Structures
1.
Amino acid sequence: MIDLSKITTQGKAMYLAYDHGIEHGPVDLTGKSLNPDYILDLAVKGGYNAVVLQKGVAEKYYPAYRKKIALILKLNGKTRLVGGEPISRQICSVEEAIQLGAQAVGYTVYVGSQYEAEMFREFGKIEEEAHRAGLPVIGWMYPRGRAIKDDDSPEITAYAARVGLELGADIVKIKYCGSQESFKKAVEAAGKTKVVLSGGPKTKPEEFLKIVKNVMAAGAIGVAVGRNVWQSKEPLKITQQIKDIIFS
Ligand code: FBP
């Protein structure tokens, strides 16, 4: 089993996701969040277990924070500008991630895409290299593409979580599928692979906190959240509220 202790606290996890610059564009990086230093500082002050970055931001900004917070390096990525079936290819190697200071690596798989097989193959290679170096692998397991009618249905979410286990992910990051009961089925489907919630678009704080409560009660180990924190008017306040739920 891969050691998760560098990116967890007593088995629980709170990650600050900040790969939106490539996935969504600067439109999502409202206010101060356009500045990576602001996010890294927030991650440190908020007591997150790790911050999620793409390689360019990691290379230019992470060195000053290396001793203060762990890094999860996202190895693939794509913009929202390309139409058609989704595919996200590897743009950073495991070796480069390690040199940049990563304690874990992440990779998005669009489960159900026409190009699923290519992402499976890349994920497999990454998993092999990362595990050889002792690094955990986190799978962003997102059902997507023409074949997926309802990407947040309980069945499809559990299927995506299970695919993460089958592919060798140590942690899967999945979206909320509507209730504590349905999320529990996804957690069960993931077996010994741990599950974290993928935050989703900014919503009311009380709604988001309810979701966090539900997923923790369902057996998740924590959250990897972006917009619901750094698009908030009070990012440190909601961070503390999330932390209270996860680590209580
Ligand atoms: P949020 O908490 O802001 O939803 O971030 C989670 C995340 O997975 C990011 O890591 C990623 O950039 C984004 O969501 C991708 O979202 P989508 O593919 O649904 O547009």
2.
Amino acid sequence: MSRERSALTAPTVLPNEAAACARGLSKSYGSGEARVVALDKVDADFGRGMFTAIMGPSGSGKSTLMHCMAGLDSFTSGSVRIGTAELGALNDKQLTRLRRDEIGFIFQAFNLLPTLSALENITLPLDIAGRTPDKEWLDTVIATVGLASRLSHRPSQLSGGQQQRVAIARALAARPEIVFADEPTGNLDSRSGAEVLGFLRHSVRELGQTVVMVTHDPGAAAYADRVVFLMDGRIVDEMDGPTADAVLDRMKDLDARRSR
Ligand code: ADP
Ligand code: MG
């Protein structure tokens, strides 16, 4: 899938086709001697309807980038835009609403409530918000995740892959602008992982969802349209149309560059 990217070269104009952008995004933890720069002036655009993978060594800032962009963590400087909203310009109430309506987050641990059925887990955030789910959308999401026959099951009655698919359906239920997934297959065997990755890709292709996924697995990254490589809090490389072999080669190059 190739997209016109010329708009990205204009430094002050945020490209319309991006579901989310970071500009000069920096985040440090601690102060003085103990100060850690987790993100160092990151510029990133996540195209609408695109599946982007984020890769990089442990500690390179992948989770920090996701959390800062999803409004789950504050940042030190720079800006983040989700849809038309500048995160820095929002008050707490607006930020809460944005997180609820426009951002889906999928964690490595599925974080399902054990006493609720699959369907109840999926609609829980909407129920808490007092919103009526869009029935047609919900049916589409459930059909796409292939959970229609499992809706009354409790999490303990589902496989790991099925549980993660429930968590993905939950993240998609509000029809968010963007879904962030931090190592969503980290707790799954390779077959369940493939199931989840296939579904994430399907949600991009068939439902037009925008997905950004952290992974350390080249095979998982190959499901994405684009890979962004992070190192020491900076974006050091990008790849369009990744294959597992190409990603693995690039990782070796980056490792070699690093240890030089
Ligand atoms: P990754 O997800 O790529 O493994 P992280 O974003 O979790 O990396 O971490 C980036 C850097 O920030 C690391 O050096 C890590 O030790 C540091 N870091 C992350 N969270 C905290 C925190 N809460 N307090 C202090 N340092 C942190
Ligand atoms: Mg991480």
